[in-house]
Amino acid sequence: MNAEIVEKLRGHGIQPSAQRVAVAEYILATDEHPSAERVLARVKRRFPMVSRATVYNTLNLFVEKGLVQQLVLTGGRVVFDPWVEDHHHFIDEATGKIHDIPWDAIEVKRVDRLKGFDVRKFHVVLKGRRRG
Amino acid sequence: MNAEIVEKLRGHGIQPSAQRVAVAEYILATDEHPSAERVLARVKRRFPMVSRATVYNTLNLFVEKGLVQQLVLTGGRVVFDPWVEDHHHFIDEATGKIHDIPWDAIEVKRVDRLKGFDVRKFHVVLKGRRRG
DNA sequence: TATTACTTTAGACTTAGTCTAAAACTTAAT
DNA sequence: ATTAAGTTTTAGACTAAGTCTAAAGTAATA
Question: For A41-99, what is each residue's pLDDT tens digit?
């Protein structure tokens, strides 16, 4: 059992069961922005008996405790992202792959001046192609 | 049958059946960003026998022909937007309601300078509260 | 009018997300 | 160490939205 992950879960107020550690080991190390179903498929490799409810419950708990972020960017898919700090997203339309874009790579102005809206959070969603 | 809508459908290369006109009358006039299920519920008021497949097929055709835009912004919901020109979106976290923000209300810079990415399209997604 | 092409229907199917009650496991108390 | 309390997982059922299918209905063309 990965001691570093255990500590990290505890630090976020999460009781580290074997299944939760397995989920965290995958989700915290990936830059794939996986769906819950993909997480389930991956965790099943180590825990063939793991139940769907456990994986979904675990992911939802991780989001609730701020360990990962849940995104909805394309195709109705909910995906998970270990990068919880503000950043932007680029979606490669050829592959469907989602790429993280550092916050400062793009400059956004006048967000605070929208009439009638209190903006708590924002980010830019970009679509196009990855350059080979 | 609404002649204006019929012409608009034809103009987009869409054969105007009664069901398609009913869907268009609702989707082109609303600023609600409805889900397909909501469109189905609304169209059922006029066409109680309309089938789910017809509504979904119709919405997907409208997107394909550029009559409406399909968005994925929150909660895994796919929603439809008659405003096909570039604009931004504000999601009211209290109500779930999606608001259109004019393109020029926000300034976004340096998008063209992202290393390794050809950006075809982008917009800003904002979350917060609508001010009373 | 007949034929061809297109659209809709009704119901079945799929998938991802949730619910449920019981079993299993962990932690706390004695 | 044992018991009790609390938490987590399981297995399977359920739900809702999106898709598929084959037949029926409608529109366009010859």
Answer: 999 998 999 999 999 999 999 999 999 999 988 777 889 999 999 999 999 988 889 99
Q: Which residue has the tokens 């995958």?
A: A26
Q: How is chain B split among helix, strand and coil, in percent rounded to 5?
A: 35, 30, 35
- Total residues found in chain A within this entry: 132
Q: Do B126 and A117 touch (CB under 8 A)?
A: yes
Tokens at A61, concatenated: 């708990």
Q: Do B106 and A114 touch (CB under 8 A)?
A: yes
Q: Which helix (H) or strand (E) holds A123?
A: strand A117-130
The whole-angstrom separation of Cα A100 and Cα B77 is: 22
Q: What is the ipTM of this complex?
A: 0.86
B15, pLDDT greater than 70: yes
Q: Write out the two tokens for A91.
A: 């979606």
Q: Which residues contact B30 (CB under 8 A, 6 or more apart)?
A: B82
Residues of B in contact with A126 (CB under 8 A): 111, 114, 117, 119, 121-122
pLDDT at A74: 77
CB A90 within 8 A of CB B117: yes
H helices of chain A, in order, are 3-11, 18-27, 36-46, 52-64
- Measure A55 CA to D11 C1' (Å): 14
Six-digit token pair at B28? 């082109």
Mapped onto helix, strand or coil, the DSSP state of residue B54 is helix
For A71-87, the pLDDT digits (tens) are: 988 777 889 999 999 99
Name B123's bridge partners. A125
Distances from the Cα of A115 to the Cα of A110, A112, A118, B129, angstroms: 11, 9, 8, 12
| Displacement of CA B95 from its chain's centroid (Å) | 18
